[in-house]
Amino acid sequence: MSRESAQRTQHLAALRRIWAVALIPTVTLMLVAGAAEMPWWGVGLVVTVQALFLWTAMQGTSDAAVVGDSPGIARITTREAVQAQLLPRAGINGAALALRLDGAERLRQHHGDSGFQQLTETLAARLADALRAQDLVCALHPDGFGVALFPHRGLDLGAVMAVAQRTQSQLAAPVTLNGVTVWPSVSIGFSLSPRAAQLNGIDMLQAAESAADKALRSGPGALSSYSVVDFPASLSGDSIATLRRALDSGEIRAHFQPQIRTDSGIISGLEALTRWHHPQKGVLSPADFLPQIEAAGLSPRLAEVMLRDALNTLAALDKAGLSVPCVSVNLSAQELRNPRLADEIAWELDRHDLKPERLALEILETVVTRHDDDIAVRTIARLSGMGCGIDLDDFGTGNASITAIRRFAVGRIKIDRSFVTNLHRDPDQQRMVAAILSMAAQLGLSTLAEGVEHPEEQVTLAQLGCDHLQGFGIARPMPAEELVDWIVAYDQALARGEPGAAAADSAVEETVPPHARQSSAITTDAPALGTAAE
After folding, report:
1. Secondary structure of 291-321 in the HEC alphabet?
2. φ and ψ at 76, to 5 degrees?
């Protein structure tokens, strides 16, 4: 839908609502005036007409909402309005994007102020066309735009990256300035976490601008997310001490998200995901504290905590008689550069009496694209040689080559959630995922789809041949102490022929008595890597 046709549809819908609403009191007055002499069927007719007018008004509102979900009608407004939309909301946040025109000063000098203004106006119109009606756009001095993406629950890193990449593509179309063809490009910075911005005393739009400046230096056409890692001086000694204390006390610990097989529905594994149980702020997501962990140089300590919790939990499930084949733990590039990592992991596996193949290590696609990090390469090779699984995380968002996949002994690729969202409705997405699955099959790799939220997505992925699924549609990440209840309920639902997280979630309360839930708690108390077990 073009911008003009979308606006015309909105205008007609608004007119229809105005006339429909205006006629309702008119008909009501007619009814009151003639009520004494009007037969019962006449009263019924008038009420029916009123209901018809009301339905027309509501239909107009629905039409406007549908148009609002279509691209091409995002509102260009002020910086203040954009900042207001980005204010934190209860349980859900938006995202801020800042776009900077690559080579702006050179373009201004070459085409003059009038030509440069024509270019920015063209890009502004294209930007509005690329976004939704609920999103807001503003100008950023001297050569960019700010965007507030309207808050919704699916607005995660993958979704924001998809919006940023689509925006770059649409703005890259050629523009003719004074008979000269210009191929513009933009670098984009974005911010997803209000808390991360607040740590430096700025708002989300300012955080996105900082990330855009970083992207501009890496450009052209670069993307960068805001992180307090770029501002390590903002972390005080007290902040670092608080983080260290949270890691040592167990406030920062693992939650676990189940993974299931598509061919049988049985649980095939767990992913350990970090959460901070903050005493004042409640449970914090990784986006709210991982940048500070990295800036404080505490990533190795976090890796110890996550591995300890993961292996303790897996061993506890074994003792409870519950079958969970493996657990996966994320490792960053910094952690992989620890030359002692493989030895430390081997020691922990031996201490928990677990075979190496029951631990999978997830590495980001950006890690395998680097060919100059020999320590990381040797570490991954050793871990693979031990028998640990190597999962390539967020596949499709980077530039991993087949050679790199083979070099790092990857055994499974995790398809990024940006390819999974609304997969059942998008034929292009289906073809993309089918191509990834076909490539994986030819290379002998297992596959797992992340971010699965709807039953239709599960069905489509199973039909396409994906091996494993993970996402809120199956189960949300949960503390270790809740795992036994969930697994028992899920297995019971599966045995009844009712697989699915919803069935399992509801069954927890119905089939597991309170005393059983209490006795099945799993603890993750254990010494850190390299220390003796008591």
Report:
1. HHHHHCCCHHHHHHHHHHHHHHHHHHHHHCC
2. -90, 120
Give the 3-state DSSP-derived string for 169-225, with helices as H, strands as E and coil as C. HHHCCCEEECCEEECCCEEEEEECCHHHHHCCCCCHHHHHHHHHHHHHHHCCCCEEE
Using CA atoms, how far apart are residues 360 and 307, in angstroms rounded to an integer?
A: 11
Give residue 103's region: left, alpha or beta (phi > 0; psi -120 to 50). left
pTM, 2 dp: 0.56
Please give the angle made by the CA atoms of 81, 214 and 172, to the nearest 5 degrees: 75
Listed residue (316, 329, 346) closest to 270, CA to CA: 329
Q: Is the dihedral of CA 367, 368, 371, 372 positive or negative?
A: positive
CA distance 225 to 362: 21
Provide the pLDDT confidence category of residue 534 given band limits of 50, 70 and 90: very low
Residues 178-207 pLDDT 10s: 888 888 999 999 998 887 777 677 889 988
Please tell me whether residue 344 adopts helix, strand or coil conformation. helix
Q: What is the DSSP code string of 227-263? A: -GGG-GGG--HHHHHHHHHHHHHTSEEEEEEEEEETT
Reduce the DSSP state of residue 162 to 3 states and report it.
helix
